[in-house]
Write a structure and sequence with these properties.
It is a single chain. It is built from six helices and seven strands; from the N terminus they run ββββαααβαβαβα. It is of the alpha+beta class and about 170 residues long. Strands 4-1-7-5-6 form a five-stranded mixed beta sheet. Strands 2-3 form a two-stranded antiparallel ribbon. β2 and β3 form a beta hairpin. α1 packs parallel to α3. The longest helix has 14 residues. The protein starts with a strand and ends with a helix. The structure holds ligand L45E5XJ5 and 2C-methyl-D-erythritol 2,4-cyclodiphosphate. The site of 2C-methyl-D-erythritol 2,4-cyclodiphosphate has 12 residues, from α2.
Length: about 170
């Protein structure tokens, strides 16, 4: 079957920590606070993937009181979830990702972030869309206290994916 997952995450800014978004280090005076590397974008993506395959949430998979996840790169967590998606026999169809942050400006990192996620999920770049928006100075993101991210993903059962691939090869569909 075809399924979708949706997720939200937020993290507070902190000094003297690097800022990672989508597995890419971003030039910034402030990083994000968290038990892991606090990659808010990957956390939203991970939760959306887990939602799509009916596998609960990030905190259940990678508890924030376990020392093994202290400062861990969220790319490692994404890889675990990618494997779970595969084990459950789903293929990731597309991901649409949004960061809400007053700064830094993220548009210049768009390609790097898309490439990083595509490489790590082992899917086509054109299956991923990344965008950023400010909150027009309103709320906690607007005041520059932190960042938020939203993710929506769609997945397709592998056997259906194969079926569509065959139809494409035969020229029956595009
Ligand atoms: N952290 C951000 C926020 C926004 N952008 C880019 O600016 C455009 C306009 O944002 P508004 O919040 O004023 O609508 C947005 O579409 C992004 O292209 C950004 O790069 N980084
Ligand atoms: C991945 C984890 C692991 O501690 O990361 P955190 O940095 O604590 O981030 P959060 O999004 O608050 O919760 C998810 C956690 O499971």
């Amino acid at each position: 079957m075809f399924k979708v997952g949706f997720a939200y995450d937020s993290h507070r800014f902190t000094k003297s920590r690097p800022l990672f978004l989508g597995g890419v280090e971003i030039e910034s005076d402030l990083g994000l606070k968290g038990h892991s590397d606090a990659d808010v974008l990957l956390h939203a993506l991970i939760d959306a993937l887990l939602g799509a395959i009916g596998s609960g949430d990030i905190g259940t998979h990678f508890p924030d009181d376990e020392p093994q996840y202290k400062d861990i790169s969220s790319l490692k967590l994404l890889d675990e979830v990618r494997k779970e998606v595969k084990e459950k026999k789903y293929i990731i169809n597309n991901c649409d990702l949004v960061i809400v942050a007053e700064k830094p400006k993220l548009k210049p990192y768009r390609n790097q972030i898309v490439n990083s996620i595509a490489d790590n999920l082992k899917i086509e770049k054109n299956s991923i869309n990344f965008k950023a928006t400010t909150n027009e100075k309103m709320g906690f993101t607007g005041r520059g206290e932190g960042m938020a991210a939203y993710a929506v993903v769609s997945v397709l059962e592998s056997r259906l994916w194969q079926f569509f691939e065959t139809l494409k090869m035969e020229g029956s569909i595009r």
